[in-house]
Amino acid sequence: MKFLAVHPGPLMYTKIFLRLEPLGLELVAEAARRAGHTVRIIDLQVESHADLFRIVDDWRPDAVAFSCNYLANVPEIVDLAKAIKQRLPASFVFVGGHSASFTAHDFLEHGAGAIDCVLKGEGEASVAQLLEAAGNGGASVARVPGAVSPHGEGPTPGFVADLDDLRPARDLLRKRNKYFIGTLDPCASVEFSRGCPWDCTFCSAWTFYGRSYRPVTPDVAVEEVGRVREPGIFIVDDVAFIQSRHGLAIGEGIARRGIAKEYYLETRGDVLLRNKEVFAFWKRIGLKYMFLGLEAIDEDGLKKYRKRVPLGRNFEALEFARSLGIRVAINLIADPDWDKERFRAVREWCLEIPEIVNLSVNTPYPGTETWHTESRHLVSRDYRLFDIQHCVLPTRMPLEEFYAELVKTQQVMNMKHLGWSAFKQTAGIAARLLARGQTNFVKMLWKFNGVYNDKLLLADHRLPATYEMTPPPAGSAAPQAKSLYVHAPQGRRGRAIDDATERFVDETRMGENAVGA
Ligand code: B12
Ligand code: SF4
User: Fold this and answer.
1) Where are the alpha helices (DSSP H) in 135-258?
2) Closest protein CA for atom 24 of ligand 1
3) pTM here?
4) What per-residue string of b and e applies to 241-275 under the rule 16 or more CB within 10 Å gives b?
5) β-strand 92-96 against 213-215: which pairing, if any?
6) What is the pLDDT of residues 459-488, one digit of tens each?
């Protein structure tokens, strides 16, 4: 079968700060290739819709699949699916990925016949079976684990048998030099583990994987890092180095093989403090940037997100990262309830610290606990606005004032590391990148004002919504775990962490009301 795998276009964040390879789609593509199919990938973050239609018209694939990790990409994907189905009525069109798994029935409805199936869960596990079933008619499709189609729903999706067997089809990406994050330009993505044992109310990373945690064997992870050609590596794990032994074993393997790369990772403040020696080791082998999800800078805010990392510990984590000389990016969540005074306090705090601060907007998503418990009514159900940069809950200030404050605060935060001042600080690195023909980092330094703009944000609200998601169920009761999970939870045995780490997770996770298994 000729199989075309498509990643949708960029969202606000990826228009400036970073752009990363679609690792999940590459893994699905490789699984299909191993099953004997001829596979191509197109990434619309770096290629155009016209490029996609050219491939569709010239190559005429038998199956076309879209990756939908982000809700905000749903309308683009539905429209593309319709256009492709019109050009190739006999092709089998399907969608998979994180957000598609939580909105499968909506997808089929919006597609109005153009989307043949949504494949929930880990794509590598059943893509080959789905492609085979596609040739045998609707009833076969409906029997594939994770498949949701007009002919019915298959059994609960299963996990891939062994993460160590997975290999991404990196060679199928046509513009690999376009992927970067900060000064890591170009940059590839690598996965050391899958899943997250915590259960934060606003997050769907854990509900997707049934609150499981599976590490890649250290030797296999080192092999993969060694295979990557790019000098920069983004580690995609939700929380890096939860288990110190695992993180150290990979780091030591990399050091033994003399692999020289620069790394970016995301972790939690309490994990950083618990496993200091791991992060210190990684600093020595090239760890440059670290993203910490602080979420709030006051205890009230933290309570709201039910993060049990006390504020003092988070600040201690920042101090420790600073002492290692790692560049830290912090995420804070702005609540639509914020007033001018609150924004002002946040601005002041950001100016006092050297870190990069990212401000996102509190947004309930399908697949999260807050989707069910948030008692404020959504002001919009337009998928495009669910990108945590727009506001879909009622604001205390008039919306235009909220956006004006939000963008002003983001500008203040970003002036520290964008524009000429950043260019001067990084002149040596910038010159080296430009000499190698890598322009992603340097170009992004001046893009901020063109993308982050309160007038543009407001204008997006005025556009008619082409597709609207099904609202959360009425009432605001904490949901049954069953209704949140994509992959079925396996309890303690699903988490490959030692008992001390399991206890540590228990002490720092959200606690008594947690719905997690
Ligand atoms: C790494 C990551 C990023 C990276 C890289 C994104 C990229 N290019 O892929 C960066 C930092 C850029 C990023 C940015 C954002 N992210 Co992000 N990100 C993640 C993270 C931590 C891991 C994703 C990943 O690479 N996993 C590893 C790969 C192997 O898994 P995967 O991509 O999920 O693919 C598997 C399945 O989904 C499925 N699959 C995927 N595609 C397909 C296609 C088909 C056909 C099939 C069958 C299956 C399938 O099979 C794959 C293999 O098992 C997830 C959390 C999570 N655990 O999923 C959040 C997450 C996806 N991000 C999220 C958000 C909100 C964002 C931002 C909007 C944040 C912002 N501040 O603006 C931006 C927008 C990005 C954009 N597209 O422009 C949310 C999504 C929420 C939602 N429902 O929309 C998540 C779930 C985090 C969360 N805590 O809630 N992100
Ligand atoms: S620690 Fe919380 S926010 Fe981070 S990935 Fe896990 S569940 Fe999501």
Assistant:
1) 138-141, 205-208, 218-227, 244-256
2) 236
3) 0.94
4) bbbbebbbbbbebbbeeebebbbbbbbbbbbbbbb
5) unpaired
6) 999 999 999 999 988 766 777 767 799 999
- Tokens 């983001």 map to which residue? 410
Whether the CB-CB separation of 100 and 108 falls below 8 Å is answered with no
Residue of higher predicted confidence among 236 and 351: 236
Supply 474's token pair: 């009425």
Indicate the Cα dihedral angle 43, 45, 46, 47, nearest 10°.
60
**pLDDT score, position 313:** 84
Nearest residue (CA) to ligand 2, atom 2: 200
pLDDT at 312: 79
For range 321-331, the mean pLDDT: 91
- CB 406 within 8 Å of CB 340: no
Place of tokens 């002036």: 415
What span, in angstroms and rounded, lies between the C-alpha atoms of 512 and 220? 37
Distance 205 CA to ligand 2 centre (A): 6
Q: For atom 72 of ligand 1, which residue has the closest CA?
A: 13
| Nearest ligand for residue 24 CA | 1
Task: Tell whether the torsion through CA atoms of 398, 475, 153 and 35 is positive or negative.
Answer: positive
Q: What is the pLDDT of residue 448?
A: 64
Choice between 479 and 122, residue whose per-residue pLDDT is larger: 122
Under DSSP, the state recorded for 121 is S
Quick one: pLDDT band at residue 350, thresholds 50, 70, 90?
confident
Rounded to an integer, what distance in angstroms lies between the CA atom of residue 72 and that of residue 322? 34
**Identity of the residue numbered 365:** Y
From CA 487, how far away is CA 265, in angstroms rounded? 25
Q: What is the DSSP letter of 486?
A: S
Q: Which of 12, 98, 179, 191, when mutated, tests ligand 1's pocket best, judged by the most ligand atoms within 8 Å of its CB?
A: 98
Amino acid identity at 422 = A
